[in-house]
Amino acid sequence: MKHRARSMPRRLVWLGLSLVLTAAQAGEIWKCQQGSKVRYSDQPCPAQGDTLPARALQPNVVAAERSAADAASPGTRLAGNVCPEEVEIAAMESRATASSLGPAEQRFFKGEIARARQCRQGRVRYSASDWALSRQAQADQFRPGVEVEARQRAEAMHKAAAARAAQASPEPLAAGASSPAVSSR
After folding, report:
1. CA distance 168 to 78
2. Each residue of 20-69: pLDDT tens digit?
């Protein structure tokens, strides 16, 4: 008798699991009212029943907000401009506070964060290869002996990007839009 009592919950679990899997494969689920009991099935109810609507996924909220922001402020991004996403900027902010970094490395990270934000505001034009160089320079800040050279490469890249933006736009950059000074020492 004890064996039968233990196997009953297992049977119910397997029965429920098989019904769920069968219903997921069938696509349509019927809710059937039989007296005071409700039964769900992949087959139409024998008497009367309602088809439950297929479950619709909600859109990605972050993507919808970003699309709305881009639509509300057309022209803030330069055509062909590639910028880090907010998630990457947040990761940069976290790395900037690493206790293993010295003051020069922390200033470098803060400069990269400021430049990434300027890029997202459409003030400077960058390519994917520019940000790949920046990411490598950021990683090199944790490698003793190569950090100074990496900062210099990144600084040269940022100067070239600022020059491209200045050539593309006949009007001068807004106050505070110049690239932040980064110490390479």
Report:
1. 9
2. 666 555 467 777 777 788 887 777 776 655 555 665 555 555 555 555 55
Radius of gyration, alpha carbons of the chain = 29
User: Nearest 5°: CA angle at 29, between 27 and 33?
Assistant: 170
Tokens of 183: 């110490």
Provide the whole-model pTM. Answer: 0.51
Cα-based angle 26, 32, 36 (whole degrees, multiple of 5): 150
What six digits make up the tokens of 16?
A: 């429920």
Looking at the chain, list the stretches that DSSP marks H as alpha helix, in order from N- to C-terminal side.
2-26, 61-72, 86-96, 103-120, 128-140, 147-168
Residues in Cβ contact with 60 at an 8 Å cutoff, skipping those fewer than 6 apart: none
Distance CA 68, CA 70 (A): 5
Phi, psi angle pair for 33, to nearest 5°: -100, 120
Mind giving me the DSSP string for 63-99?
HHHHHHHHHHSTTSSPTT-----HHHHHHHHHHHT-T
147-168 vs 128-140: helix crossing angle, rounded to 10: 160
Distance CA 143, CA 121 (A): 31
